[in-house]
Write a structure and sequence with these properties.
alpha+beta; Elongation Factor Tu (Ef-tu), domain 3; 9 helices; about 25% helix
Length: about 400
């Protein structure tokens, strides 16, 4: 029998070789003839993340969608030097008067005694709802509900008014008789001379502070020289007080120009203070003329601008103007001169702007606004960016007005 290769291999070596041939390969170590490539899966997670991001982005665009118009109003520098005449609560340039009274006192040592019969006095506001200006003479009588009579210290001119907005003027009155019983607190007044007529209910008076100074008898006193020494000190204290009080009473929409406040001082009867002392008293009265800002701005624009068609305007800075007049208003007309420089700002009606661009394409809206004299510059914003037109509902359009100086 012929021999094979197994016949010449030692039995121990042959058994080892046979064991190697039947033993399985170690786990995780593929043989060269059994290798396979890993299977790839579709990236669904990435696709979902991208879709979510796109959805959120588009949603955000619509969530913050809107239309906005930013307006820079037209403005013009105005240099003014001219004469004006205003009319009380009427006409193209109306005016109103704000009056404030304050009393300052200074305690000094008594120098003697005196027997006096002083009449109480104070300030009342006279109102007129008749629709026609009313004039009254000096010593016109005003009566309290208790029958006490006070008389006007001077002539009275009350502007016309209505029940909703009466014409008013502040006047000084004094009691018809001396004595402290006339030192009454705040009260209302009627005019006995008008009793039984329509004007009797249309012209009335009211005080907001007590009448004072009424006295009859003997009291401590000081010389006139002592009073004269105290008055300048009291004036200095009163002037600032009454001017600040006037400013606090200016209604919204009105303007008080430098030079339009008239301050006067009047000595008041002394009063007894603590034992052996006297209070020297001085009253300060500030009468301020105020104007509706829009009416004053129009009057200045007509006089100082070359081209102006009466559009609504306001003043940029009224504090740079100066008013000059010989006296506070007496009656229904007030003549004054005005000098200085200011800025005239055109008033922007935001509702009008919104209505003008509603439903319009961007270019058409820009052309429309360019024809508005109050618009110096308009910035139109539409979101999302592919929106070509403004919403048809003006309430969905935001209109803002910028400060011209800030825009420049």
């Amino acid at each position: 029998m012929p021999k094979t290769i197994n016949d010449i291999i030692p039995p121990s070596r042959r058994r080892a070789m046979e064991a190697d041939q039947v033993a399985p390969p170690p786990t995780g170590e593929p043989t060269s003839h059994s290798y396979s490539r890993p299977r790839r899966t579709f990236p669904w997670g990435l696709v979902i993340a991208i879709v979510v991001i796109l959805g959120v982005s588009i949603g955000a665009l619509y969530a913050f969608a809107g239309a906005r118009v930013e307006i820079t109003p037209s403005s013009s520098e105005a240099s003014i030097s001219g004469e004006f005449t205003a009319t009380a609560a009427a006409g193209e340039l109306p005016f109103e008067v704000v009056t404030v009274d304050k009393i300052a006192t200074q305690k000094v040592e008594a120098e003697s005694t005196e027997t006096v019969n002083d009449a109480a006095q104070g300030t009342i506001t006279v109102s007129n709802t008749s629709g026609e200006p009313q004039d009254f003479v000096k010593n016109t009588r005003f009566q309290t509900s208790d029958g006490l009579i006070f008389k006007a210290q001077g002539p009275i001119s009350i502007p016309s008014g209505t029940a909703e907005r009466p014409g008013t003027v502040n006047i000084t009155v004094y009691a018809e008789s001396p004595g402290d019983r006339y030192n009454v607190g705040p009260t209302t007044f009627t005019l006995p001379g008008l009793a039984g007529s329509d004007l009797g209910t249309q012209v009335t008076g009211k005080s907001t502070e007590a009448m004072s100074g009424g006295f009859s008898g003997t009291r401590p006193s000081v010389s006139q020289a002592t009073r004269d020494e105290q008055y300048p000190k009291l004036e200095a204290a009163l002037k600032n007080d009454v001017e600040e009080a006037v400013k606090a009473q200016i209604p919204q929409g009105y303007v008080l120009l430098p030079g339009a406040t008239f301050v006067s001082f009047s000595p008041q009867p002394d009063t007894s203070s603590a034992a052996g002392s006297v209070e020297v008293r001085l009253k300060g009265t500030a009468t301020a003329v105020i104007f509706p800002e829009d009416a004053l701005a129009q009057a200045i624009a007509y006089k100082s601008l070359g081209v102006y068609a009466g559009e609504p305007v306001t003043l940029g800075d009224a504090g740079s103007l100066n008013l000059s007049a010989t006296e506070a208003p007496v009656g229904n007309d007030f003549a004054f001169s005005l000098t200085g420089e200011t800025e005239i700002l055109w008033t922007v009606d935001t509702e009008r702007i919104g209505g003008a661009v509603a439903g319009k394409k961007r270019d058409a809206a820009q052309v429309i606004l360019a024809g508005y004299p109050e618009v110096e510059r308009a910035v139109l914003v539409l979101r999302p960016f592919w929106a070509g037109s403004f919403p048809s509902d003006p309430s969905e359009i935001e209109v803002s007005v910028t400060n011209p100086k800030a825009a420049r």
